[in-house]
Write a structure and sequence with these properties.
The structure holds two protein chains of two kinds. Chain A contains nine helices and no strands. Chain A is mostly helical. Chain A has one domain. The model of chain A has no long low-confidence stretch (mean pLDDT 94). Chain B is α+β, with helices and mostly antiparallel strands. In chain B, 21% of the residues lie in helices and 21% in strands. The chains are: A mainly alpha, B alpha+beta. Chains A and B meet through helix 3, helix 6 and helix 9 of A and loops of B.
Chain lengths: 200, 306
Amino acid sequence: MRILIWIGALLPILYAAIRFSADLHPAWLSDIFLFIEGYIRVVLTKTPNDPLKFLSDLCGNSALWLLALTLLLSPLRSYLKINLLPYRRLLGLFAFFHAFIHAMLFIAIDQQFSVTGVIHEVTTKPFIAFGMGAFLILLIMALTSSRKLFSKFKGWHKLIYIAVVLIAVHYLMSHKTVTLTHIAVVGTLFSLLALRLLKR
Amino acid sequence: MLRRTNYDEIPSSEITSESIYRERRELMKLGAAAALLGTSPLMAALGYEKAKSTLELTSYDQITTYNNFYEYGTDKESPAKLAKNLKTRPWTLHIGGEVQKAQTLDIDTLIKKIPLEERIYRFRCVEGWAMVVPWVGFSLSSLLKQAGLTSKSKYVDFETLFDPVQFPAQRQTFGSIPFPYREGLRIDEAMHPLTILAVGLYGKELLPQNGAPIRLVVPWKYGFKSIKSIVKITLSEHQTRSTWNQIGPNEYGFYANVNPAVDHPRWSQARERVLGKFFKQDTLAFNGYGANVAHLYKNMDLRKFY
């Protein structure tokens, strides 16, 4: 199971590596990828047109879905009696890992490590503030996730409810129009929260 | 007479080194050959005046696979996949409203009659990405002069084709924008020599995802002003609301001049991501065309009229 989680959570990184090396693929590899492209809706044979946005979206979305999976484990146990809780920490940390890259792309590449730049963006743009707020919560949770600290900081982990709401708003605001897909994604996140609140 | 139009201001950072210049010459030869062999017998037959520029061109592949065209969906990849079968012939362009002679023009007749020229322009999207495109087209002013302006021709409105059979998103009731897509310019902006109607890029006829068969290009404004697949141009006395301005007036202004000093409410406009490049570069006031157009907005507060 642990290996499965490692592979799954690192798939986006492999995908990014494939996309960024698209021009270097040997012909046989491109042929295989073209074949796959014919069957599933995925791009493998083209370097991203807008590399920074590509990576940022990829990591942001990966963080969101890994977090959703993390949130799924406790309802799985209470409703279906499937106990995967031992893997929750690992999943959560991987969600944080992607959120960390997502945030670092903004801080390091977009804002070039400018502290005043980041503060300016956070204080003038709610969209950025929501994302940064959620990231800080995930950061606190990641830092206090060891067995020893978790027993002390358990209460702090309730902040995840706030983080999910912030992430949902941040996600909706990241698009110029709100589509049914976006609403479905946010709906999924909120139902996961609701499931936990209904039966704890 | 040979007309050379070079509207670039050349910052020293953009002056090309000898070796890159040579490489680029080779690429351009390839490009020219491709253009001759390419999909545009019409333009090959007519010829157009080549432009010179020190700007590094964005590749044809990138320009034609990264598009905002909400008629095909909200993502950047759908247009290139879905637009292939857009019927761009026959195509007519109606020019009406406050003009002396309202007219309906056939696109091929129009292209054959008007001398085409290449314009290498920076293109900056309001979302923060940017490219450099070698358009082929003609100045909008020449067409408007043909129709004849009156004292009441104060604004120019443009409209994209409305055809739910061909444009899947126009059949949607939720999650897109109101159609038909509309844009507008003030008459002095429309008559400015930089403002063109493009019918091609890289020496080939426009592909549908880039706004075939005819689109507007206003290089000092954010890309959404440069409306695609135009069927109607209407001159009027009053300013009408353009599509994005109607959806989010606090986010997308009527003027929408590229302005690094005025942020979008959700993201900074100070810098931009050039397609294919990982690191951002500074955005120029009026997208680098300030020397040509800043006077149009002399007494206006650009923070208010963004």
